[in-house]
User: Fold these one by one.
Assistant:
Number 1:
Amino acid sequence: MRAIMLAAGVGRRLFGDENDDLPKALLRFEGKTLLHRHIEILQDVGVEELVMVVGHRKEDLFAEIEAVIAAGDAPEGFIRTIYNPRFKEAPILSLWTAVEELRKGDETLFMDADVLYHPEMMRRLIRSPHPNCFIMDRDLEEGEDPVKVCIRDGELVDFGKLITGDFDEMGEWPGFLKMSPEIAAKLADASQAFVDSGNVEVTYEVAMREVLVTEPPGTFGYEDITDVPWIEIDFPSDLLRAEKIILPQVTGFDPEERDASSQPLKNQASGE
């Protein structure tokens, strides 16, 4: 399996429009960057290669990759990079940059770079019997910003930030998606179609939804990760929460002592 990670953005919502801060993949928690954590987790679950789409301050990402390899935490050749020269534009252009990787005929793991999480979340996704699989946290944050996964009659029926259809359950998507070779190629085609039409002011989730809603029911499955501590770091409040609340939960989490029916650990600690 190959992982494709989007790590090209400038982090406007976290650092401001004209920032020159480090990429979010280089945020450090207990002295270790998110990228370093991703690399260790991906190797643990058997991913054979990580392809990173880079852009903003790419040299700093290259330096961190070399540092991780030098520390013995990744073998030479495990990580490749692809440069997105339009990294200041909409996120779908980063996905489009990787279309040839999506068409290579391999099982593919899509992932965002700005997520802090316990490895159990990735284990559940990779080990899922569903060849095309989303993950879902039923502890959904309110508002339009979270990307939502919608279930009806046990089937995944919709996906995105703004949902208008009928569904029985809805949860938050943490930003990781496992795909069969066929679905990865269709995601490449959907991304290409948006770019070819000049419609690039959209997020990559729009292309994913295009594939989801046009495939037969049952093509996509999902895994519940509600009990697993995680956070996507988009805003300054997310970074503070990651440092003060989520990181201690990640450190102390024991999947053998938890199950998906229990009260979400992250909310117990936050007092929400």
Number 2:
Amino acid sequence: MTIVEAVITSTRGRKNSLIENMILRKVSPEGPREGLIAVEPQNWRRDALVSAVERGGARVCSSSEATALIWASPEKPELLYDFISENHDWVQLPYAGIEPFVNMLDKQRLWTCGKGVYSPAVAEHALAMILAMQRNLVSYARLAQWSEGTGRNLFGARVTILGGGGIAEDIIPLLEPFRCEITIIRKTSLPLRGANQTLKLEDLKTVLPSTDVLLIALALTKETESLIGKSELSLLPNNSIIVNVARGKHIVTEDLVRALRNKEIAGAALDVTDPEPLPPEHPLWGLPNCLITPHTANTPEMGIELLSSRVTDNVSRYIKGLELTGCINIDEGY
């Protein structure tokens, strides 16, 4: 599929031949063309992304001249309105999560994000969290004296992964040496390589009672917000752990606090929380069976290198009129 077909597909069902004609004029599949791409706004990421665009074969120019825009400031989504133009037929967003930009998305242009870009780093962090919880390292680290040994092996554990995207694809090979029994929960039941079974989201409650490790690694949508609450937590075995490297709003925080306090589950490892950042006085900080990291499964230093590679690849594809990687499904919201 070419970028032309991808954009027109995103507008299908709408009576908007003007948009289709505009896209056809700007993104010609008939051989290479010069790319005029803006990288905005000015910040510490911009130099690396400018280099990435140039490696992809395009020329960096002002937003008013450009036909496409690489957005360099995930922390300031509101500024996008100041730079986006009707001339832009493609916008690249920096993160996999697009919640701050959802209200800005339109079908007049193609939108891509960082889907899959950061998944190797996040998968590595998730594995570290799983091992830390299974081996009781959180509690040991807080002690000031010798204690009795406790913990569980990851070998042979029953791991349920919510989400069948890049994080799942990258953590399955990391879990292979531990011979885990892996269940994937996703929107479709299409098999995922390396998983023992793939089930749909509506099957979640049937698999929770036999889950040792519940890994949350899926996009945040209306369907998945508050996906793990009191009823789901009550179905998990009391020796199970939850690891969340997706979004804090997947879990009902008050219900998680209650489950951890009452030892309804063995523990939780959270790289994301609701609210975020987590206030210093929040009860989760004081729970010995809770590990919290500050949304740093993928650090900015790791991230810019990974994002730059994606930008170079997409710029090259854009110039050639090929399908881009990480296209956002506007109707689905991710």
